[in-house]
Specification:
With 322 residues, the protein is α/β, with parallel strands linked by helices. The chain has a single domain, classed as 3-Layer(aba) Sandwich (Arginase, Chain A), CATH 3.40.800. Strand 7, helix 9 and strand 8 form a beta-alpha-beta unit. Helix content is 31%, strand content 16%. It contains 10 helices and 8 strands.
């Protein structure tokens, strides 16, 4: 008899509004579960936004993303990928964060991901603010620096904020470079735009060989050409993908803390992920969905669809099961 444990139920068997919500209606397989070691790709919630410096709310992102992800079906309509047949996928649950202690929360996140990686699970994350990516990278890049593809309207390469504070959602990739978690020569940032305090972050990018692609260049050259360059930059070595929902224009994704106008539309938001087929993915995340600023759930629906596209990409990755 075929084992269907890792297959989500069809909407024709269990209505999408019914049942206990999990990511894409996958089984809940937390650490300690008897089938935890069988999981190949684990979707993890990080309900934490203590690094937020503007509008809060991404701590509520994983819960709404789970709910909206019930709309995902068995097959990708554009690529024909059937991710739940290609790999054993599960919802690993949420990291239990400490909402009043940034350092302790980051240690908890790193420990959770280290356990998953030790079990051979490739992590796919629903955040949470963008500082969440730093402790994830501490686990993912424990054996050496990784390449990084960042979709964002901000560089998140700032050094400090308010009296020398080094850990906010505007600083994670400065810290990741300093800690040797990311190879700056294999780091590309796509969609950068908006007003700035100064040029410190861009100067840091230039000095360290980080490829920064402003949104003006993205629109002028088009997604296919931009993503071809991104694939070339990261090459075939291990690469992490981080996707801030504010990469997308707020007309399509208003539910985020620091929106910037002039971004890609919702179709381009999916297209850029599809154009990354073939890279060696060691993990990915979707962050900064803030439900209080889009109670309709439209931003979370887009976010859940991006997570599905990332999952389809990861199930086809050459590194799966390595």
């Amino acid at each position: 008899m075929t084992d269907t444990f890792f297959h989500p139920p069809s909407g024709s068997q269990l209505p999408r509004f019914a049942g206990v919500p999990t990511f894409m209606r996958l089984p809940h397989v937390p650490p300690g579960h008897e089938r935890f070691a069988e999981v190949e790709i684990g979707i993890i919630g990080v309900p934490w936004d203590s690094g937020t410096t503007n509008r809060p709310g991404p701590r509520h992102g994983p819960r709404q993303l789970r709910d909206m992800s019930s709309m995902m079906r068995a097959q990708n309509g554009a690529t024909s990928v059937r991710p739940f047949e290609a790999a054993r996928c599960a919802d690993l649950g949420d990291v239990p964060p400490n909402p009043v202690d940034i350092q302790d929360a980051m240690a908890r996140i790193t420990a959770f991901y280290s356990d998953a990686i030790a079990a051979g699970i490739t992590p796919l994350t629903a955040g949470g603010d963008h500082l969440s990516t730093l402790p994830i990278l501490r686990a993912v890049a424990a054996s050496g620096p990784v390449g990084l593809i960042q979709f964002d309207s901000h560089t998140d390469l700032n050094d400090t904020y308010f009296d020398g504070q080094k850990y906010t959602h505007g600083t994670p990739f400065r810290r990741a470079i300093e800690e040797g978690l990311v190879d700056p020569s294999r780091f590309v940032q796509i969609g950068i735009r908006g007003t700035m305090y100064d040029t410190e972050d861009r100067d840091f990018a230039a000095a360290n060989g980080i490829r920064l692609i402003p949104v003006e260049e993205f629109h002028a050259r088009g997604p296919a050409e931009i993503m071809a360059e991104a694939r070339e930059i990261v090459g075939t070595a291990p690469t992490y993908i981080t996707y801030d929902i504010d990469f997308v224009d707020p007309a399509f994704a208003p539910g985020t803390g620091t929106p910037e106008v002039g971004g890609p539309n919702s179709y381009q938001a999916l297209q850029v992920v599809r154009e990354l087929a073939g890279i060696n993915i060691v993990g990915a995340d979707l962050v900064e969905v803030s439900p209080p600023f889009d109670a309709s759930g439209g931003t979370a629906l887009l976010g859940a669809t991006i997570i599905f596209e990332l999952l389809c990409l990861m199930t086809c990755a050459d590194s799966l099961g390595a």
